[in-house]
């Protein structure tokens, strides 16, 4: 594999559904007894120059397009598909921006444009510093310590999912077990002591199955109607924000639903603060009263930036028009419209 004229690599396992780019690169390098660093620095032709500036831990974030194009030429995988193996490939569905310094505007647009348990606008305002949805901002690269399915980890061909480094899912949608720290799982496999699979609570497994459906098809099928993945992720984050608000700051009529959620879960009040901290929100919300000045409503989703790539097209039926906000790509089925929703409000 010399860095001359571009040629297809003789061995190039295809990416697994939802696999992270770094995981796929490791599987590409393994048959040649190379490290990922050696694969990037010496086997991508001219693209090896920009590849040398990318830290291996950050390859899942937003790698230079030259790297993706070089990998596409050498493996036959579409560039658009490779883009979706990175966090940047999911903007603006996963997040409106990857710049954490755009908070608090990004926080209010992402979490306050919809409502689930509370009346619209009742969540008030938050004091938010640097923030990104589903991603930590206090570490580089901005990914959480990966968590993997102990059953999936026994099959090397499955790789590691991009969601392993996101604060998005707690269970494996295929096996229904809780995700475990990747380091512990790998060590257990090396020692011949596989990490036991712990069944996930059914509510957790059900939500994660819906999230995975959205990540793989572009649409989440809910009882009332299907919604676009971007809407679903914002509804989830809105729900986390609403149950994290102190019920003493809500109207008397609005406090029972969040309070009942924690009571039914059997978790103490401290869990509310832990949830808010885990997902990057402060809990010093101000309830809306006659003396409260709240920020103006966030812009509608029609104001979202036009994305560079589109997620996989939905395969389920829809009952209302969904205008496209992004061009079709080779990673989608061109014969169908992209499932982008512009509706707001609770679902």
Automatic annotation (TrEMBL):
Entry-linked Pfam families: TniQ
Biased composition (Polar residues): 283-292, 326-347
Region of interest (Disordered), ranges: 248-347
Domain TniQ: 10-179
InterPro entries per the UniProt record, alphabetical: TniQ
Taxonomy, superkingdom: Bacteria
Compositionally biased intervals (Low complexity): 267-282
Signal peptide location: none
Identification of the protein by name: TniQ family protein
Protein species of origin: Actinomadura alba
Lineage, opening ranks: Bacteria, Bacillati, Actinomycetota, Actinomycetes, Streptosporangiales
């Amino acid at each position: 594999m010399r860095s001359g004229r571009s040629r297809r690599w003789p061995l190039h396992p295809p990416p697994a559904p939802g696999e992270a780019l770094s995981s796929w690169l490791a599987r590409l390098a393994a048959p040649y007894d190379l490290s990922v660093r050696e694969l990037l620095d010496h086997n991508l032709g001219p693209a090896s120059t920009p590849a040398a500036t990318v830290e291996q831990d950050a390859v899942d974030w937003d790698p230079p397009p030259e790297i993706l194009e070089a990998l596409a030429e050498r493996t036959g995988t579409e560039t658009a598909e490779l883009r979706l193996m990175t966090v940047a490939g999911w903007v603006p569905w996963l997040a409106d921006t990857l710049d954490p310094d755009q908070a608090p505007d990004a926080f209010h647009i992402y979490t306050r444009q919809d409502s689930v348990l509370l009346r619209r606008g009742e969540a008030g305002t938050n004091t938010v510093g640097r923030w990104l949805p589903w991603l930590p901002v206090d570490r580089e690269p901005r990914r959480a310590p990966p968590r993997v399915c102990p059953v999936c980890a026994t099959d090397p061909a499955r790789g590691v999912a991009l969601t392993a480094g996101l604060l998005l899912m707690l269970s494996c949608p295929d096996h229904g077990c809780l995700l475990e720290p990747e380091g512990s799982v790998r060590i257990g496999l090396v020692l011949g002591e596989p990490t036991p699979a712990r069944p996930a609570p059914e509510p957790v497994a059900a939500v994660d199955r819906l999230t995975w459906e959205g990540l793989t098809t572009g649409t989440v099928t809910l009882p009332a109607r299907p919604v676009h993945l971007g809407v679903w992720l914002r509804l989830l984050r809105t729900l986390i924000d609403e149950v994290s608000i102190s019920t003493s700051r809500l109207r008397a009529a609005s406090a029972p639903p969040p309070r009942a959620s924690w009571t039914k879960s059997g978790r103490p009040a401290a869990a509310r603060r832990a949830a808010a901290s885990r997902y990057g929100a402060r809990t010093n919300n101000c309830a809306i009263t006659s003396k409260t000045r709240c920020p103006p409503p966030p812009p509608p989703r029609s104001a979202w930036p036009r994305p560079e790539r589109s997620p996989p097209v939905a395969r389920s039926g829809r009952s209302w028009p969904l205008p496209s906000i992004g061009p079709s790509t080779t990673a989608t089925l061109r014969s169908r419209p992209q499932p982008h929703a512009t509706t707001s409000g609770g679902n």
